[in-house]
Each structure stands twice: as C-alpha cells, then as structure tokens.
Design goal:
It is a single chain. The protein has 297 residues and is α/β, with parallel strands linked by helices. It folds into two domains: 140 residues, CheA-289, Domain 4 (OB fold (Dihydrolipoamide Acetyltransferase, E2P)), CATH 2.40.50.180; 142 residues, Response regulator (Rossmann fold, 3-Layer(aba) Sandwich), CATH 3.40.50.2300. The chain contains ten helices and 16 strands. It has a six-stranded mixed beta sheet with strand order 8-1-2-11-10-9, with no helix packed on it. The protein has a five-stranded mixed beta sheet with strand order 3-6-7-5-4. A five-stranded parallel beta sheet has the order 13-12-14-15-16, sandwiched between helices.
Length: 297
C-alpha cells in the first residue's frame, strides 16, 4: 500500500490511515508511516517489556517490533499480522496491527479533541476523534507517547534542560499550540524554566482564537512568539502558520513549527506557509536557542 500521499500546505487537510487492533478501529497520520509490511522474523530481546516483541531486519535497517495489542491491553488477533513502520521524533519503529482498513482524506475540522471524560488523565493515548460518517468514528492514537513510555530517552532530555541558562528574553510571552497532554506539560515546564511566560492551547483553532483576543496596540506585549505542532484537531499547525503570516497585523510574530514529523517534504511545506523555523521534537534546548535567535532580530 502506498503511503506517500502529500497534501498541499496549509489547507487543513490530513490523510489518516485506519487500522484494526483487537477488534477496535484506530488511526494514525499517514505522514508518520514509511511503509506497511507483512509479518517478519523477530529476534527476541532478553528482559524487554512484554509488548516489545524484539527486533527485525529489513532493507539493511533494524526495527524494534512493538505489539500494539499488548501495549493497549487488547486481545490479539494474528489472522492478518502487519507492521506499520513509522518515523517520527527521529526514531524508526514498527507497530504490529491486525488489519489495515482504509486511508481517509479528512479536514482537521472533522477531528475533535477528546473530552475530559474520555481523557481522564494526561496519560491518555487518544489525541483526537475523527468523524467518518453519521455513526462512524476513529480514535487517533498518540504514538509519540507510546514511544516515550517504552523508552523515555525519546522524550525531552531533562538533564540538558536542567543545565540550560535563563533566556536573555525571559519574561516574554510564548503561545504554544500542542495537542499532546504529555508534550504540553513538558514544554510548559521547560520553557518556564528558561524564563518565558507560557500559554498552551490544545489545537490551532484555539491558538488562532487567542490571537484574535491579542489584537491591538499591545499585541507584542501579550505574545512575542508562537510555537506550534503540526497535527492537531480542528486546525493544524501549517494552517495556523499560514493564517498568521497572511494577516497584516499578526505576521510580525515569529512562528516556530516544533513537530515530530519534520522531514524534507514537511520542511518544504513549513517554508511555504511562512514558518520562521522548523525543529524536530523533542530537542527543547535547540527550541529555546531558536526562540532567542528569532527574538533578537
């Protein structure tokens, strides 16, 4: 199955791959998938977590094999074993799923944030709910959090953050658009440690609405820089960036795209919509350095 579908920049569209695990239907952004392969010969790893099956070799590369049913505590069904080979956060990994159903071309406005009853706590794995029809829906899973749970080294380097000096621009306000509760917490703690005042919102639409409140002579006192993820319910980061840069009043604000999905194609799209910088998660030290550089201009 081809998964190299590229959508135009800043149109608020997304391709979501629907897959089945334990009889449940879930989704992942196609942009995170390198390829889909059949069952592979797995080499077991001693003392690995129960849902880490081991590793396998393909085209000269070694991939960690993660049993998604095991991680999600669902019943396994090996009738049509497949692996989603993914790349994000500068990490390649393979997730075992039962079946591939379809690729859905959606607008981010068709994807809602999960409500408080569903999320319960910040560790929840659902970042969005896609509406496919009158009675159909798809849960979009937080694969970044899965990798962090399996290997915390894929997250923000807390030792490096603790060693950071205070920013020369401390006290200035940063607006952050990020849908992952885990990343919201980490970004807030790290940027506040650098000396910034942080406002975090869960999607691009909420961030855009907040910027409308900031309009006026005091705009730059209320927000000095915008940091945005790419994939978010309601409005994605590319659309948010494009709207900011096309607005005669708001386009003075530096916009940094901070995403797990930065690659050559995505970097080109970020440039097309006017982003001042693009950085790959989770390097928070580079993010703070980038903020300082942009605010010094």
């Amino acid at each position: 199955m081809a998964t190299n579908i590229l959508l135009e920049s800043g149109t608020n569209e997304v391709e979501i791959l629907e897959f089945v695990v334990g009889g449940n239907h879930y989704g992942i952004n196609v942009a995170k998938i390198q390829e889909i392969v059949g069952d592979c010969e797995i080499q077991k790893i001693p003392h690995a977590k129960p849902f880490v099956e081991g590793v396998f070799r393909r085209r000269g590369k070694i991939y960690s094999a993660i049993n998604l049913a095991g991680y999600l505590n669902l019943e396994e069904n090996h009738a049509k074993d497949l692996f989603l080979i993914t790349y994000f956060n500068q990490v390649e990994a393979a997730f075992r799923v039962d079946e591939i159903k379809a690729i859905h071309h959606l607008s981010w406005t068709d994807i809602q944030e999960p409500d408080l009853i569903l999320t319960g706590e910040e560790s929840n794995l659902v970042t969005g709910i896609a509406k496919l029809g009158e009675d159909e829906m798809l849960l979009i899973l937080d694969f970044e959090k899965m990798l962090f749970d399996i290997n915390p080294d894929t997250g923000i380097d807390e030792d490096a953050v603790r060693g950071m000096e205070r920013s020369p621009h401390e006290g200035l306000s940063i607006l952050v658009a990020e849908d992952s509760a885990l990343l919201q917490k980490m970004l807030t703690e790290c940027l506040e440690q650098a000396g910034f005042r942080i406002t975090v919102l869960g999607n691009g639409r909420a961030a855009w609405d907040k910027l409308q409140e900031y309009r006026g002579e005091t705009l730059c006192q209320k927000v000095s820089c915008v940091i945005t993820d790419i994939e978010m319910p309601q409005m994605d980061g590319l659309t948010l960036t494009r709207q900011i840069k096309e607005d005669p009043e708001l386009n003075v604000l530096p916009v940094i795209v901070f995403s797990s999905m930065i690659n050559e194609d995505m970097s080109r799209k970020c440039t097309q919509v006017g982003a001042n910088a693009q950085l790959t998660k989770p390097d928070i030290v580079k993010l703070v350095a980038c903020i300082d550089e942009l605010l010094s201009v």
